Amino acid sequence: MSKRIDGNRLKDKMFHWFGIGCTIFGLVMLAIFLGSVLIEGLPRIDWQFFSSLPSRKPENAGILIPLLGTIWIMVLTSLVAIPLGVASGIYLEEYGKKSRIATIIEINITNLAGVPSIIYGLLALEVFVRILGLGKSLMAGSLTLALLILPIIIVATREALKAVPKTIREASYALGATKWQTTWFQVLPASSGGIVTGVILAISRAIGETAPLIVIGAMLYTTTVPTSPMDDFAILPIQIFNWLSRPQHGFIVNATAAIVVLLAITFILNGIAIYLRNRWQKKVKW
Amino acid sequence: MRSKEKIIEGILLLCAAVSILTTIGILWVLISESSVFFLNVPLSDFLFDTQWTPLFAEKHFGILPLVSGTILTSFIAIVVALPIGLAIAVYLNEYAPKGFRKFIKPILEVLAAIPTVVYGYFALMVITPFLQQIFPQMAGFNALSPGIVMGIMIIPMISSLSEDALYAVPKSLREASYGIGATRFQTSFKVLIPAASSGIIVSVILAISRAVGETMIVAIAAGQQPRLTFNPFVPVETITTYIVQVSLGDVVQGSLEYQTIFAAGIALFLMTFVLNNISFYIKRKFEEKYE
Fold it and tell me: CA nearest B260 in A: which residue?
């Protein structure tokens, strides 16, 4: 009897250590990843790297064009995805609630969230690049990414709206406000923290996406700085992919340095999102 | 006032309908382009031919090598992610001190925020050279290394969804188990995990679906050689990698080669669609049970 109890205690202890081991494994992997990138990439980063055009010599090449492309994509994607996503979220949470069409849209969004990103690339190749004639432009890329992150923004908006207590809506109605006035002046401001957090996370996801933009044919070797939404473009992830597929060691170093820049942007966006979420959760006490 | 309200509701509905248009668009594009493909290539060739060589002079259109590459890399990813992710979930849920849990969770989430092209770099430049020291016969491009890295990428997905499922198990079950003298290990594996099994299965299926659709890691580190094999040491090609490979080249739009990416796309879409819907189905049943 006591032997069995000892055995059970031993199993318990062993799993305790196994659990710690697995958690540490995750952390160590993260540390190795980040460490190896920083050691190899950081020394390469200087002003020349930020301000140079592509070049056949790795030491002359820079990320000016893909960095600007990423910023363009970030802005254009936001302009399309934020209004669409927030409006959809408002409709589903505040207006449509139990209607048939709302249910269909809801099931549909859950399904879209699970579609691999490269499939969005195929959709965009046919619809944006060919039928709408946008070509391989910034606009085509931004529309693609906007569709891709729409489900994330919609879900985040709904969660944020759900968190606003009914009493706020009822108080507004009692004062004679219409549904839209209630939504616009009361519910949206009250839920803004959650919505902004979701939007930033979605944007950070968008700027790391590579596959759908490769499919629409985003130029690997653009040599001009993009100045309008209809221009060809490159973005950081595609530049990284391009450099990684070259044999010369110098380009691998460039790819590593570009990864440091991309990770920095991603982590800054995620950091802002987490900060806003914490502040919002602390401030709002219903 | 009234009509203004109606107009606003209409605009909001239109915005929400964009997601429906997206789905219709995806289905239409995949079906219309691949139907032309299937007029030229018999479905039986597509499903049963064991070679995929649309870009060569002697063309074969058997999707099996791409499917096997996709299954192989996803399988390796799950073999890595499932035990580690589940162990982390159980550990954080039953064993870890609260403060540690609060501290560790956001750090693990960072793994999920890293762009996949960066993971591709890790697979190619860090994991493959490391594995080659252990397995000298391993090729520079292989299924093992991107599979492992994909596994590391989906650990947070499995651990956080599984932990939510474990956390949702009614407290009474846990207390009853401790009440009759069970250890944390027994409580976790004989009470909590069976009770949370549907939630855990959902997390695993979603993780598999994510791995099946993952593109950049395999495109960078698995190679681009379609090959019907389950040998993890040789180069393989996944469905997603093939689409990338064609997109990078100069394939004439409207040609048979061009249509192959939509045929491959439809195979990929179907695989993830089935996986996702199995998970929705399980999730719905699970929710009914507890409410």
Answer: A122
